[in-house]
Amino acid sequence: MLAAVLRQYAERGRPPSLQEISASLDISQQAVSESLLRLHRHDLILLDPNNRLILGAYPFTEKATGHSITIQRTGRTLSTMCAVDALGAGAMCRENVTIHSNCRLCGKPIAGQVEQQGMTLAKIEPARAVVWIGLEVSSGCAAESLCTEMLFFCGDAHLNQWRSARGIDGYDLSPEEAFEVGKALFIDRALMGDTPRL
Length: 198
Fold this sequence. Notes:
Layout: H1 2-12, H2 18-25, H3 29-41, E1 45-47, E2 54-57, E3 60-61, E4 68-71, E5 77-80, H4 83-93, E6 97-102, E7 109-115, E8 120-125, E9 130-134, E10 150-153, H5 156-166, E11 170-173, H6 175-186
Antiparallel strand pairs: 1-2, 2-3, 3-5, 4-5, 4-6, 6-7, 7-8, 9-10, 9-11
Helix pairs in contact: 2-3, 4-6
């Protein structure tokens, strides 16, 4: 079920509805609803308070987070939960993507290109950009805790300035290191049960 949700999310550029999932999998809407609730309880997707609408499915979200990707094949742009999710989304779908974000301190644009069907971080601008992985205890919903501490910065100076004001522990990674983390977390998740498109 999760792979189907993620595939449709990426293809449509928005969360699929219960009806759309039901039709694509040829199962009842009740069965879809029950499966989505199980995924929500395991913090794999986010649902609205009535448990009828998908609000996010890691790495994608309907919330404006400041991180997004554009799938080059379709031109669809999707918000991601965090910097690491943006870096790993291409590997999840085996798609070339453009990453859009900003330095959390100064707002300077940060852009990346993921190529070879999501397997290679080909470019990041500015070249000195870094990724911060803050050690935030999960509150049961990573999107509202951990993900808020996985951020891009335009360089070490702005990361260090931001950290000194916040006093939170964590790790600063190069974009290449953070890309490997994202790739490891998400690779082929949207293709489970399918043959990856190479």
